Amino acid sequence: MATISLKDLVKNYGKVEVLHHVEGEFQDGEFIVIVGPSGCGKSTLLRMVAGLETVTSGEIYIGDKMVNQLEPADRDIAMVFQNYALYPHMSVRENMAYGLKLRKFSKDDIERRVNEAATILEIQDYLDRKPRQLSGGQRQRVAMGRAIVRDPQVFLFDEPLSNLDAKLRVQMRLEIKKLQRKLGVTSIYVTHDQVEAMTLGDRLMVLNAGYVEQFGTPIDLYEKPASVFVAGFIGSPSMNFLPAKLTNSHIELENGHKIPTSSAQQGDAIFGVRPEHMVVDDNGPIEVKTELCEQLGANTLVHGRLNKCETSVVASIQGHWDYEPGSILRFNVTPENHHLFDSKTEKRLES
Amino acid sequence: MVEHRPILNIVTHLVLILGILIVALPIWITFVAATHDEARMLQAPLPLLPGPYFIENFKKTLFGSGLSGTETAPVWRMLMNSLFMAIMIAVGKIAISLLSAFAIVYFKFPFRMGFFWLIFITLMLPVEVRILPTYEVVADLGMLNSYWGLSIPLIASATATFMFRQVFLTIPDEMLESARIDGAKPMRFFFDILLPLSRTNIAALFVILFIYGWNQYLWPLLITTETDMTTIVMSIKQMLEAAEQSPQWNIIMMTALLAMIPPVFVVIGMQKMFVKGLTETDK
């Protein structure tokens, strides 16, 4: 178990810089999720911590040791890969024991550790099978088993659930979380799935095109997104963004309707509202011309456009509703659920 | 195609049987010739049914000094020579091309692709093309009339290197990364992961290369002058020309028959892995 710190990390491929001065301090035992769209550099960052990619500049510390130059094997880490990377010619037992064998553990010790890990993951029954005789979920467990037998200081997960079907993914997600709590090992988990990120992470690092957009707890990210990107990425369906003008304590929408605000800012802005915070109110300031209703059972998604404008708006309202296309609905949003962003930098405007 | 038409069935079988007959006839004649005595084989027409002298011919060929009136080594000796040569060539080729493919795929060093193409170019330089300089080198190293001289000049193989390169490229990168995290050094990774994963390909290649080595004719002919080192394939040809007398077909054919046996065993014994190695893509 150890802390991890990333100091001014930069990664170049040839002349192209793909990670820009990433900073991060991860606490001992913390579950960190790195999340972002594909190509944002999240896997690269993870592989740099693992030692599979070189560091262009900056420093990585595991515990208080600088590990930039260390081989992956000497960093005391374990990694779970997206395609599991089990050795196909070895049995589950041999797969799990391989790392221990190379580290010259005694036979009894290996036996004991493998059995312990197998018990935790409930894979005792197929220790002697080959990986190809296992289902996707079982392989996933074996891959985790291979990571935990070594009792490393850090777990690294590279999108470990993306090859599983939806139901299994939810189940394994819970198990990973439980396992990590139980073992208390500092973990870094990479995913592009925001639900996975929100449910698993103690803290989330949102990456976009090689920049850290925001680093904080899931609730922080949800309630106070630092930028339009984070606001749009976290939450489903994603936040509505309405172009607006700020004038003496009012938000003026495109169609001229005004919403009172406590913000003292002036000028062009982006007004963000989450669909689940839109409340139907006949006197509300947000006028929406409906286009389509999606009934999901517990709630209904109303898709439409801001009246007399092109900006599309989604509202999520409780219960079953079915509005005729073209009907006008009015919504209100309580001030604590207002999000204001600068229209140029797309950063959050604090009141 | 799944069709059930009786006439079609009969026709397909006829075609197959005809094909087998055409392929098998020369082998049958070889066998028949090996079961008659010398005199019968010189009369026309050639016999088509086996005669009574099989055991006698067998003993004479395998343990005698071969043809009467010449000084050739006994055939068992030639069989051993051929076997040693073929195994040394097959094993040597596989070992060297595995290592070169490993270097080319998994290590980054200057002129990597240059080396790859250099190896590839040797495809255009089989022994027959470079026979004089190769002979010179082997002679200078004092390897004439030795197993080393028979096998080493034939060991480098561009085809096998290329094949193993392709095999290694299909093994996912994560396998290497995972082994690195587990603490495997390069040669560990090679022996523990790469070798077992290319096992079937090695078997397939072994079959092909064993037969290639077994069938070598020109090179052994040049390099061996002592009768003790002759190989079976080259000596069959020599037997035909040996001695100023009519060829002793019964002995020659028995030798040919014996020469066929080891490759047949290798093919039959490794057939399953051979097919797997050439068709399997799942890693």
TrEMBL record, chain A:
Any one Pfam family match given in the protein's UniProt record, by short name: ABC_tran
Keywords, sorted A to Z: ATP-binding, Cell inner membrane, Cell membrane, Membrane, Nucleotide-binding, Sugar transport, Translocase, Transport
Entry keyword Transcription regulation: no
GO molecular function, a single term: ATP binding
Taxonomy, superkingdom: Bacteria
ATP-binding listed as a keyword: yes
Gene3D superfamilies linked to this entry: 2.40.50.100, Nucleic acid-binding proteins, P-loop containing nucleotide triphosphate hydrolases
InterPro entries noted in UniProt: AAA+_ATPase, ABC_transporter-like_ATP-bd, ABC_transporter-like_CS, ABC_transpr_MalK-like, ABC_transpr_MalK/UgpC-like, Mo/tungstate-bd_C_term_dom, NA-bd_OB-fold, OB_MalK-like
Alphabetized SUPFAM superfamilies for the sequence: MOP-like, P-loop containing nucleoside triphosphate hydrolases
All residue ranges annotated as the ABC transporter domain in the record: 4-234
Family: Belongs to the ABC transporter superfamily.
Name of this chain's protein: Sn-glycerol-3-phosphate import ATP-binding protein UgpC
Automatic annotation (TrEMBL), chain B:
Kinase listed as a keyword: no
Membrane topology type: Multi-pass membrane protein
Name by which UniProt lists this protein: sn-glycerol-3-phosphate transport system permease protein UgpE
Domain ABC transmembrane type-1: 79-270
Species of provenance: Maritalea mediterranea
Pfam families: BPD_transp_1
Transmembrane feature ranges: 7-31, 83-107, 114-135, 147-168, 189-212, 249-268
Compartments, record wording: Cell inner membrane; Cell membrane
Stated family: Belongs to the binding-protein-dependent transport system permease family.
Assembly description: The complex is composed of two ATP-binding proteins (UgpC), two transmembrane proteins (UgpA and UgpE) and a solute-binding protein (UgpB).
Function noted in UniProt: Part of the ABC transporter complex UgpBAEC involved in sn-glycerol-3-phosphate (G3P) import. Probably responsible for the translocation of the substrate across the membrane.
SUPFAM superfamilies: MetI-like
Transmembrane helix as UniProt keyword: yes
Keywords for the protein's UniProt record, in alphabetical order: Cell inner membrane, Cell membrane, Membrane, Transmembrane, Transmembrane helix, Transport
Subcellular location, principal: membrane
Gene that this polypeptide is encoded by: ugpE
